[in-house]
Amino acid sequence: MSDTNIIDTQAQNKDGQTKCPKCGATDISLNAATGELRCNFCRFTFQAEALEEMKEGVGDLQGEQVGAGAADIDNNADTTVTLKCTSCGAEVVVDLSESSQARCHWCRNMLSVNSKVPNGMVPDTILPFKMKKDEARQRIEDYVGQRKFFANKKFQSEFSTENIMGVYFPYMLVDMKGHADFSGVGEIEKGSYTRSRGDDDKETVYKVESYSVARTGDVEIDDLAVESSARRAGAGTENETNNIINAILPFDTENCVKYDSNYLKGFTSEKRDVNKGDLRNIVDSQEREAIKFAFNDTAKEYDRGIRWDKMDIKKEGEKWMAAYLPVWLYSYVENPGTPKQLTHYVAVNARTSETIGSVPINKSRMTSISVGIGALVTLAGLLTIFDVKEFGELIVALGLGFVVGFFFFTANYSKYRNTGARHHFETETKIKLSNVTKEDSFRRKFETTDSSMDDANNLSVAVEKLQKE
């Protein structure tokens, strides 16, 4: 690709202010029920200004383009700036680590930092909240209410959604246009039969045809969303369930608008602390995996799987935009001040209403009930299926009880803690394949007792972690 082109996404905001189209006042806030801006003086509501760079088609991308808000962070940038009021001329000092807005203490005119500050504070685009706090509270209460049976008793007594917070989290939105060239080996099952192995032991044998598989095509990826906070992009602490924020993706990023600090009123925000270079491996990996899964639709006949040995992607264009995306967040600290301290989160996507979280578990209760269920299964097996006089069948019954009890425990643990929850970017990313060519050639026939291709990778996901320098 050609040299990087920096896009000035705030070129039209000469005075850094948003004014009411009806009365000209600058006291503007967000109407969380509609996602529109509202004048606090005349109560007029109006649509936010769209960011033209977000509306451009991926098919027109050439070279690398980076929004000014996505530019590398200047660690020496001063977070304290002085704004000159355009109404009365007074100068007001704003600490950007605390807020990106201020009010003139002389004329009450609203001042905002809409120009780009090279410290990760100001993004290119923002997706407004479109869910009221009361609705978010109800969703969190319903989510926790469905998980109270095995919830920690102390947590149940202290649980309250009074203090949930609306937070804008930082993301990079990446568009990519390029050409993909994949090749490998695929297998098709052509039948099966059962054969004896002696002593009444049998096994299934599968008849397989192996093919060399190749797929090429043009690809467009639209708004791949990657977290741009080191704390949540794979470099967080182990005593936080911060994967919950990742799991509520995706957002309807096609509705993002030009960044305006008025959207932050009443909400908090987290500053971006990683650069494009820090996220390059993650983005490359997720683009590759999304393309790999998209190619599955062109190779459905390979029911035993495909092992892609070569996955080459030639990028013709790529665009990076820094974005703020909205989340309602509840947090609870379990065992505070101890080595077992763990922070649990329940998060609500403030656009799609997707809710997911982690609830502290009463492990003793869950364990005892799991053991009890396992014991009942063992007893039922002994009474109705097996002959208790046979020692081998007793062992089988005990094993069956253990498996059922263990499955009960792990299923409920997953429901309450969601430790494996994540955004399935490989299938949820907006991707378009075109001009796809298929070149498959027969390799050989063989038989195997393996029910699927042993080293297939077309349905597995390689998740890259952030390695921040």
What can you see in these coordinates?
With 469 residues, the chain is α+β, with helices and mostly antiparallel strands. 22% of the residues lie in helices and 34% in strands. It folds into two domains: 383 residues, no CATH class; 55 residues. The strands form four sheets. Strands 1, 5, 10, 11, 12, 13, 14, 15, 16, 17, 18 and 19 form a twelve-stranded mixed beta sheet that branches. Strand 16 and strand 17 form a beta hairpin. It is flat.
Strand content: 25-35%
Low-confidence stretches: none
Using only C-alpha atoms, the radius of gyration works out to 28 Å
Count of discrete domains = 2
Give helix and strand order, one letter per element, not per position.
EEEEHEEEEEEHHEEHEEHEEEHHHEE
Structural class designation: alpha+beta
* Strands, count: 19
Mean pLDDT: 86
Instruction: State the end-to-end distance.
Output: 25 Å
Shape: flat
Largest sheet: 12 strands, mixed
Percent range of helical residues: 10-25%
Query: Assembly state here?
Result: single chain
Helix run count: 8
